[in-house]
Amino acid sequence: MKVINIKNVESKKVMMDGAFNAYKQIPISKADGTPNFSMRVFTIEPNGYTPYHKHNYEQLNYIIEGEGILINENQDEIPLNEGDFVLVLPNEIHQYKNKSSNKNFVFICCVPKEFE
């Protein structure tokens, strides 16, 4: 069993090409012995974004705070708000953006532990 507060988890800048002002924390990881999934927390600063990308595994998200948008493969902008859940299926192109100029956009992202 593990209990940890997000304040005690190291935050690292997302270094993937196409990311801007995005940070990742991994409070539950394969190093903790999780059998299947890792839990990550992304913080996207004002006007920041994740890369426009896809991967061959599902991604489960929960919006903790702020407002943002999810861009899909059709370039549709889907509004996201605190309390929303998102399922990104394998190979779906997606990008998260913070449209705010003064508030962070924060969400949980669960992925298979091999891809944390």
Descriptive overview:
- The protein is mostly beta strands and 116 residues long.
- The protein has one domain (11-115): Jelly Rolls (Sandwich), CATH 2.60.120.10.
- The chain is built from no helices and 9 strands.
- The protein has strands at 12-13, 20-28, 37-49, 59-65, 67-71, 77-81, 85-88, 95-97, 105-112.
- The strands form 2 sheets. The protein has a 6-stranded antiparallel β-sheet, with no helix packed on it. A 3-stranded antiparallel β-sheet has the order 6-5-8, with no helix packed on it.
- The mean pLDDT is 96.
- Poorly predicted runs: none
Strand residues, percent: over 45%
Biggest β-sheet strands, sense, barrel: 6 strands, antiparallel
Structural class, please?
A: mainly beta
**Count of the domains:** 1
* Count of beta strands: 9
DSSP helix fraction: under 10%
CATH topology: Jelly Rolls
Q: Give the CATH level 1 class.
A: Mainly Beta
What Rg do the Cα atoms give? 14 Å
Order of helices and strands: EEEEEEEEE
Quick one: overall form? globular
Major β-sheet strand ordering:
1-2-3-9-4-7
- Number of helical regions: 0
Measure the end-to-end span: 19 Å
Query: At CATH's second level, what is the architecture?
Result: Sandwich
CATH H-tier superfamily: Jelly Rolls
**What is the typical, i.e. mean, pLDDT?**
96
Furnish the topology, listing elements before pairings.
Elements: E1 12-13, E2 20-28, E3 37-49, E4 59-65, E5 67-71, E6 77-81, E7 85-88, E8 95-97, E9 105-112
Antiparallel strand pairs: 1-2, 2-3, 3-9, 4-7, 4-9, 5-6, 5-8
